[in-house]
């Protein structure tokens, strides 16, 4: 009997694929084993969507706060459509289960209490995002790359990212003091050097002042406290308008602020505060350079 070598080769390939090695990832709190490469992934933080997009992986579900526009265009263009599973603080377990995921990527800060419920649905990674700094976000991205069986692609993307950020740092002049704050109608939260965006700015050679001694990564401040810091540039993400910054702008004290002379800049809070990913950092770097060379177009 004559063997069909093409058929035999195809069967061998299929058998090899069926016997693919499982993927084991230690997320810092659990060792998670995936029996095969995951294809139906639910991401419960924006930084995780950014990491997936960075290696051309599209999640089937995202905790998008019921507002897909909170994910930047650059990321949405890669991942395409997804099903919303609700808000990041309280995603819907029922909506997640209905998607039949084979991997859930959850936030260590927000979702630890419901880890068992998630892991009953699918293997679940618990990674820091909400309180993570820049270098921490890159470590999480590397773990996500491993989990989706794209470790080498993620390593290449991270190398490209570091080269791009180093190029921005070379082009950004030394000496400027800059700080970002998130503005709502009744509060202003400044992000210090330990915050995500603050640590990105520091990596670029920008001076980011401590908001207050022994404070957190971000702290709410009054106008008087802001004046005490008096940065060269104040970058504002308006979560809602009119914001408290719009109110302060009419106060006599505001005119004393160094940055009030054309250096209070409105930026996209989704990029600067909410996303905390590889592409977000690159956009922050591009924004920073544009702010300093005067070419930045402010967000309305």
Describe it for me?
The protein has 300 residues and is an alpha/beta fold. It folds into two domains: 157 residues, 3-Layer(aba) Sandwich (Rossmann fold); 121 residues, Nitrogenase molybdenum iron protein domain (Rossmann fold). It is built from 13 helices and twelve strands. The strands form three sheets. It has a five-stranded parallel sheet with strand order 5-4-3-6-7. A five-stranded mixed sheet has the order 10-9-8-11-12. A two-stranded antiparallel ribbon has the order 1-2. The radius of gyration is 22 Å and the shape is globular. About 3% of the residues have low confidence.
Uncertain regions spanning at least 5 consecutive residues: 11-18
* Number of helices, counting only DSSP H or I runs of 4 residues or more: 13
Whole-number total of structural domains = 2
Strand order of the largest sheet: 5-4-3-6-7
Architecture of the largest domain, according to CATH?
3-Layer(aba) Sandwich
Give descriptors for this structure.
300 residues, alpha/beta, Rossmann fold, 2 domains, five-stranded parallel beta sheet, five-stranded mixed beta sheet, 12 strands
What is this structure, in a nutshell?
The chain is built from 13 helices and twelve strands. It has 300 residues and is an alpha/beta fold.
């Amino acid at each position: 009997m004559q063997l069909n070598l093409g058929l035999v080769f195809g069967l061998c390939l299929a058998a090899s694929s069926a016997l693919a090695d499982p993927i084991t990832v230690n997320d810092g709190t659990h060792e998670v084993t995936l029996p095969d490469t995951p294809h139906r992934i639910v991401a419960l933080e924006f930084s995780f969507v950014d990491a997936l997009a960075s290696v051309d992986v599209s999640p089937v579900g995202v905790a998008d706060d019921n507002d897909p526009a909170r994910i930047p265009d650059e990321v949405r263009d890669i991942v395409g459509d997804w099903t919303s599973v609700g808000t990041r603080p309280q995603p819907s377990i029922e909506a997640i289960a209905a998607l039949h995921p084979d991997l859930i990527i959850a936030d260590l800060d927000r979702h630890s209490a419901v880890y068992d419920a998630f892991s009953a649905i699918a293997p679940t990674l618990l990674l820091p995002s909400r309180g993570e700094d820049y270098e921490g976000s890159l470590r999480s991205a590397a773990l996500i790359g491993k989990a989706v069986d794209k470790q080498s692609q993620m390593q290449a993307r991270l190398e490209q990212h570091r080269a791009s950020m180093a190029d921005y740092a070379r082009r950004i002049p030394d000496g400027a003091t800059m700080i970002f704050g998130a503005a709502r109608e009744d509060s202003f939260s400044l992000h210090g050097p330990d915050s995500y965006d603050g640590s990105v700015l520091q990596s670029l050679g920008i001076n980011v002042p401590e908001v207050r001694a022994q404070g957190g990564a971000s702290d709410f401040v009054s106008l008087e406290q802001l004046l005490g810091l008096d940065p060269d540039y104040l970058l504002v993400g308006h979560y809602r308008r009119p914001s408290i910054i719009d109110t302060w702008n009419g106060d006599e004290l505001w005119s004393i602020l160094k940055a009030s002379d054309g250096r209070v800049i409105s930026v996209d809070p989704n990029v600067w505060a909410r996303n905390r990913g590889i592409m977000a950092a690159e956009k922050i770097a591009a924004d920073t350079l544009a702010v300093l060379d005067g070419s930045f177009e402010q967000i309305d």
